[in-house]
């Protein structure tokens, strides 16, 4: 185990001491980075990118071990594909670091400020969080993304990746650490606690005061476990039971492609649509058109009776149950329901949504106004695909996840969301009366 | 128990069902308020203020029960004073609601926005959180402040006050509810769970999904309990081990009043200074002056040897121990240490600070730059009193607390900090390629 983190004494009862030591090192390293200039950070990102490409063979070899273990363990082909690295994928991961270097530095941004009546000069300035913890699943590109986003935003990162990608991540973290050290930065800016297994993750969730924020990324089970167990502040990401509502006045020629794109452009992602609601007044023209188009994409429809009645021949159909309204399929399945009114649509969405993204297709200004003020989701989209809820699409640059909670960050989380602020007050002797 | 909350079945095993029912009512009420105009909310605030003044006699009578119980239980005079209400204090509490009405509405503010290359019009808009939970201690004015801040920011509030103020709070919540109902708003916008005691507080901390944020306000024990036990996102407030560092180049004529004001203007508050660090190069002139001034205010000095050597006759003095550097006295006590350099001061503060407020007195630009970039606290103040870290003083209006965590809010939390944002995206048929 050549890359065991500093202080590591193996999994088990010593995880507490080891993870605490790692977190202290991270905190110390974060202080160095907090005052680093953008030029220093961007140079480090380029060096990290180059080091990954240079180490492509070693990374692919480590990844081969993971794939072999995965195959022996009966991992599904789709998961094996997400885990797999080849030189082309390593190059793409490295490019993401170069793109981060091109983004503006969030640190130092003056968020607001004023001169107070007593002459105090007040400004609220963006500063790094300090230490960011990531608990995530199999994909090794997340290791690099998280390291890059943390570095650019001035933070140290502690990584707990899935065991399925352990060998890939071990090599990647070592390569990134070497690149940082060669740039004169602490290699402890990017540390892994994978060596401590589940016990390490538990310690990370308890390290309040040493770890400033924890971002879980993965399936609903992983996220809920972290939310429940962590005393470190958590940002909840990623579960999306997204809706598209096609209103009475919708432009059918636009609504059909919007539904198709929302459902089928990519299915395994949190901003894909899972339920389609159709206003009864437009159902006769819209439903046959959209169902035929969905059928061509092999989508299975889970519909109510009105949907069943409009179904073209040859489509896969199952009668919808309560469970369908709640389900984030992440597959070529779509729940479909005909509603009598905008009110019924709003009611349905309020009840079943996970608060991620909701779309309305309409030509009516009152419907737009009500849909965008009465619903309580991270993104409310009018006449466009749900797939636009994304940091890159919103022009925020890279994203570390999509927050579905309301505290701190909501929706796509980029560099700014990995910072906090400090109030700086400058006076010349003012005291309070 | 005329004001038992809807669904209340008494303390004990039914707290879960009762608090869940209360939280659901709050959520429903919050939806009504989310789309209310500023005019509606301000009218409600004025009506609430008027109702409190009209009910002054009943509130003072309820408060008398609390005071009587407190006296029998041996409550300290200083706490009895903070608990006590008379018509003048009720009027002051009501005025705070009128001041809230005068502040701009945070809801609807466009935080940022742009038109994307594909023509999508994107804006990030401030919206209410939904349901805010407050767990706090004895002072009944917090009941009204919390209700007012929540209402103005478009949120419903669930209150768990200290048992010491139970009778006062019971009357106040009933009066506020009547005022809301008379304005055509749900009285469930302001609900108390005091009837369920500790079991109710536990349920509130578990109501993730129904309660959007929990703000504990009170002593360190209360706050730490909530941080540890809550699965609802928490904003940690209020512990302040604040430092004043008097640098080698400090203007002594300004530094003495700054130290005095930071320590003695009010002692029981989180932005009072608890430790004074003095650069050795200025100690000979500064220390005798500041110690004499502190002595006149009856401050007890907990000092190192260099401080002891400079001590004027007649001052209360105790040799400082490690414990003194860690202590938030909240009293007329001050830890004092002479340091050799700015580096030693920064090191000391980084080690012992609770991350609230740090002050530097200096005439040197490099010291200002390092102090305001290398320290990691909510407020960094140059040449002014620590007592300025306050929502009112910063010009933010009323505050619900001072956050010492980094997520969501840091420093004084006003109306904007009780909101979240939604991304609204308007297109005309865009789909993702």
Short synopsis of the structure:
The structure is a homodimer. Chain A has about 425 residues and is an alpha/beta fold. Chain A has helices spanning about 15-35, 40-55, 55-70, 75-85, 85-100, 140-150, 165-180, 195-205, 220-230, 250-265, 280-295, 305-310, 320-325, 340-350, 365-375; strands at about 110-115, 120-130, 130-135, 155-160, 190, 215, 240-245, 275-280, 300-305, 315-320, 335-340, 355-360, 380-385, 400-405, 410-415, 420-430.
Instruction: Give the overall average pLDDT of chain A.
Output: 93
Considering DSSP H and I runs of 4 or more, what fraction of the residues of chain A is helical? 40-55%
**Strand percentage of chain A, roughly?**
15-25%
Adjacency order of strands in the biggest sheet of chain A: 10-9-11-8-7-12-13
The tally of strands of chain A reads 16
Task: Choose one word for the global shape of chain A.
Answer: globular
Give the CATH topology of the largest domain in chain A.
Answer: Aldehyde Dehydrogenase, Chain A, domain 1
CATH architecture of the largest domain in chain A: 3-Layer(aba) Sandwich
Poorly predicted regions of chain A are 1-11
Oligomer: homodimer
Radius of gyration of chain A: 24 Å
Description:
The structure is a homodimer of 433-residue chains. Chain A has 433 residues and is of the alpha/beta class. Chain A folds into two domains: 15-236 and 413-424, Aldehyde Dehydrogenase, Chain A, domain 1 (3-Layer(aba) Sandwich); 242-393, Aldehyde Dehydrogenase, Chain A, domain 2 (3-Layer(aba) Sandwich). Helices cover 43% and strands 20% of the residues of chain A. The first copy, chain A, is built from 15 helices and 16 strands. Chain A has helices at 15-34, 38-54, 56-72, 77-83, 87-102, 141-152, 166-182, 197-206, 220-229, 252-264, 280-296, 305-309, 322-326, 342-352, 365-374; strands at 110-115, 121-128, 131-136, 156-160, 190-192, 213-217, 242-246, 273-279, 300-303, 317-319, 333-339, 357-361, 379-384, 401-403, 411-413, 419-430. In chain A, the strands form four sheets. A seven-stranded parallel beta sheet of chain A has the order 10-9-11-8-7-12-13, with helices on both faces. In chain A, helix 6 (141-152) links the parallel strand 3 and strand 4. In chain A, helix 1 (15-34) packs across helix 8 (197-206), helix 2 (38-54) packs antiparallel against helix 5 and helix 3 (56-72) packs antiparallel against helix 7. The termini of chain A are far apart. The model of chain A is unreliable at 1-11 (pLDDT under 50). At the A-B interface, strand 2, helix 10, helix 15, strand 13 and strand 16 of A face strand 2, helix 10, helix 15, strand 13 and strand 16 of B.
